[in-house]
């Protein structure tokens, strides 16, 4: 298990064969609860080739000095990714409107995470 976010990888080997390879990684939140996005490919064993890239959003919890995967969501194709973006773009004006009505700053949503013990400043 990884002790730092930099050590986290989405590569996965099965019986010595790389069956999932990480292409890129973006750390979205840091702290005792971390959120990381991975761009990756999975091996098509029948063809011996890697499939088109997918994305995953993975939540990790740091416990006893190491990060452990808590949950994940795979975005399997471009259509699904664009649908998610479309929903976000439609919801954020509503979020801003409600936050303004409550007297909160426009950038309040997303500043903190809802997970217990999340440390937004990146300290562990």
What would you note in describing this structure?
The structure is a single chain. This protein has 124 residues and is of the alpha+beta class. The chain has one domain. Helix content is 19%, strand content 40%. The chain has one helix spanning 78-101, and strands at residues 12-14, 17-29, 33-44, 49-50, 54-63, 66-75. Strands 1, 2, 3, 4, 5 and 6 form a six-stranded antiparallel beta sheet that branches. β2 (17-29) and β3 form a beta hairpin. The protein is flat and about 55 Å long. The chain starts with 11 loop residues before the first strand and ends in a 23-residue tail after the last helix.
Short recap of the structure:
The chain is 19% helix and 40% strand.
Summarize the helix and strand pattern as letters: EEEEEEH
Helix proportion of residues, in percent? 10-25%
Number of strands: 6
Name the average pLDDT: 87
Distance between the termini: 15 Å
Q: Detail the poorly predicted runs.
A: 108-112, 116-124
The chain-level structural class is alpha+beta
